[in-house]
Amino acid sequence: MDMVYQIIKYQNLRAGTVRFKPIPKPFSDGWTSALTVFKVMLQFEKNLITTLTVAYKRAVSHKDPDMKRFLSGLIHMETVDVATTAKYITHLQHLGAIHSLNTELLSKHHSKSIDVK
Asked: Which runs of consecutive H residues, i.e. helices, occur in 1-117?
């Protein structure tokens, strides 16, 4: 949300207007895991970088150094967010693999330790 406020403030500073559009509903209401949520979030952040890059290119073509500088900062912030989200995904995948391995080992251990008479 911080980025949204920065864009609104910047547009107002330049005597611009901000047009609000409805935010589309996520593709799913039934999130199956935290990993799924983070993957969707990563895709959203990548789409945001693409949109900011298009705006940056427009600022370049209109020879607007202030807008270029502003968008460059936002793109950098969002790139850091993408890297952070990707790290979370990696950690969650690693934890999922550990959980699966532990479950498998426990199940093998319990099946060996139960004496059936």
From this structure: 2-13, 34-61, 65-113
* pLDDT tens readout for residues 31-90: 778 888 888 889 989 999 999 999 999 999 999 999 999 999 999 999 999 999 999 999
Question: How would you label 44-76 residue by residue, b for 16+ Cβ within 10 Å and e otherwise?
Answer: ebeebbeebeebbeebeeeeeeebbebbeebbe
- How far apart, in whole angstroms, are the C-alpha atoms of residue 22 and residue 18? 13
Rounded Cα distance, 101 and 9, in Å: 50
What is the spatial distance between Cα 46 and Cα 23, in angstroms, rounded to a whole number?
A: 16
Model-level pTM?
0.71
| Dist CA 47 CA 86 (whole Å) | 14
Dig out the tokens for 50 from the structure. 């693409």
